[in-house]
Amino acid sequence: MYRYFLVIVILIASAIPSHAQKYTVEKSTVIFFSDAAIEDITAENSETSGLLNVSSSEFAFLIPIKKFRFDKSLMEEHFNEKYLESEKFPNAIFKGILEGFQFDKAHQELNAVGKLTIHGIARDVVIPASIERSGNKLIARSKFVIKLEEYKIKIPQLMWQNIAEEVEVTVEFIYKPL
Amino acid sequence: MKLLLLVLLIPYVAFSQEDLLKELESKESEKSEFVDATFKGSRLVNGQSVETRHAGELELIFSHRFGTINSGIYELFGLDEAYIRLGAEYGITDRLSVGMGRTSVDKTYDGYFRYKLIRQTIGGGMPVTISAYGNAAIKTSPRKEDATFDITMKDRMAYVAQLLIARKFSSAFSLQLMPSFVHQNLVDQTQEVNSTFALGAGGRMKVSRSVSLNAEYYYRFNVPSNSPYNNAIGFGIDIETGGHVFQLVLTNSLGMTERHMITETQGNFFDGDIHMGFNITRAFQLKKPGK
């Protein structure tokens, strides 16, 4: 009887902080930069939603393609209509595990391992990231390269070679406890 | 006691199994977005499309119509004769554009606005995009001293009001209906009316990522039986490259404004009175889009 009682107390005690196990993205910046011969193209998205379970190290991101903002609106329209086909594939998705994540550390470098889905194509990826604790918030940062071909994003060959085959993606997410 | 233990375990087990992604998606699906690019250009063929310019974007439009194809080899199938319209359209906001142009046909100047009243959303919600279009055109030919009667400024004017109703059925296929009203201050009342009601219909079919086929037809309701004019028909191919749209056109209409196209189309398409032509647009971003 005493043993059961102890188990129950432990379960209840561990269930209370379990709400704080999940963190949600409060502020986000996803920037992609394409360095091409004629024209550098950059676009910024600040409407990513994301969740992180700090006890299981699982994470998920949803990046709405239509929320990338370009310097030229026509470019934005073409990006959505012709290249990312955002009406068909409205979101980029990244889901996986932060390998070796330790909640207590003030600063850590680790790998985000999981499935990245862009333009409807899912690929297994390993993306290096840094995670910093600041008060009750977590800040995740990363910089990586995406090859357009791997996600079946066509590169225009006609007239102007405007878009590079690789784009550099820089991200910063600020998490707060859910 | 064991049962109690199991019950207590349920939220614990459920928590570790829930899918973070599904949680995100359920929030995301509540938001709706407007469709992009129902049509490539501001012109379907001769007439207007629902598309306004983006805020801060200036579009220059250079349109060209040759003579009729059935004019024979002497006229090089119409190529010897050419009419042009130079135009510009600017996006004040994403929903409101204003434009002006000058056509060599009757040396006509026109000014217009286009306003998106309703925008189609992705995945239900609003099924169509509706734009209001208003145009005023002034024929500056003939000159006062060349006219056979005392022509006034008022006589030269004509006004057009249209509702443009479009639906993007898929990324490849869009349709548009255009209830239209044209008022010309001066007409030959033995064979024309001052106020014409018409309904236009048109659509586009994308054949590749950057190329689409377009068609457009305007039917006039109140036409005098002895009218020398025909309903306007147009077919076009849109080719889009970066900031340009090239539209190659086959039509029985020579005019490049609505007053000419809807009420003064002279050619009979099925007799071979077909004008080749093109519209070329170039977009310039004058002001950075708002973030």
Residue share in helix of chain A:
10-25%
- What can be said about the biggest beta sheet of chain B? 12 strands, antiparallel, barrel
CATH class of chain A: Mainly Beta
Largest interchain contact: A-B, 50 and 39 residues
Largest sheet of chain A: 8 strands, antiparallel, barrel
Order of adjacent strands in the largest pleated sheet of chain B: 1-2-3-4-5-6-7-8-9-10-11-12
Word description of this protein:
The complex is a heterodimer of chains A (178) and B (291). Chain A is built from two helices and ten strands; from the N terminus they run H-E-E-E-E-E-H-E-E-E-E-E. With 178 residues, chain A is mostly beta strands. Chain A has an eight-stranded antiparallel β-barrel. Chain B has 291 residues and is mainly beta. Chain B has a single domain, classed as Porin (Beta Barrel). Chain B is built from three helices and twelve strands, in the order ααβββββββββββαβ. Chain B has helices spanning 2-17, 20-28, 258-263; strands at residues 57-68, 82-91, 96-103, 108-118, 129-139, 157-168, 173-184, 195-206, 211-220, 233-241, 244-251, 275-285. Chain B has a twelve-stranded antiparallel beta barrel. The A-B interface holds A 1, 4, 7-8, 11-12, 14-15, 18, 21, 44, 49-53, 56, 58-62, 64, 66, 69-74, 76-78, 80-82, 85-88, 90-91, 93, 95, 154, 156, 158-160, 162 and B 1, 4-5, 8-9, 11-12, 15-16, 19-21, 23-25, 27-28, 31, 33, 35-37, 54-57, 94, 122, 171, 209-210, 241-243, 283, 285, 288-289, 291.
In short:
The complex is a heterodimer of chains A (178) and B (291). With 178 residues, chain A is mainly beta.
Distinctive features:
heterodimer; A: 178 residues; mainly beta; Lipocalin; 8-stranded antiparallel beta barrel; 2 helices; 10 strands; B: 291 residues; Porin; 12-stranded antiparallel β-barrel; 3 helices; 12 strands
Topology, element by element:
The complex is a heterodimer of chains A (178) and B (291).
Chain A (H helix, E strand, L loop, with lengths): L1 H14 L6 E13 L6 E5 L3 E5 L4 E7 L4 E2 L2 H11 L7 E9 L7 E12 L2 E14 L2 E11 L18 E12 L1
Antiparallel strand pairs in A: 1-2, 1-3, 1-10, 2-5, 3-4, 4-6, 6-7, 7-8, 8-9, 9-10
Chain B lengths: L1 H16 L2 H9 L28 E12 L13 E10 L4 E8 L4 E11 L10 E11 L17 E12 L4 E12 L10 E12 L4 E10 L12 E9 L2 E8 L6 H6 L11 E11 L6
Antiparallel strand pairs in B: 1-2, 1-12, 2-3, 3-4, 4-5, 5-6, 6-7, 7-8, 8-9, 9-10, 10-11, 11-12
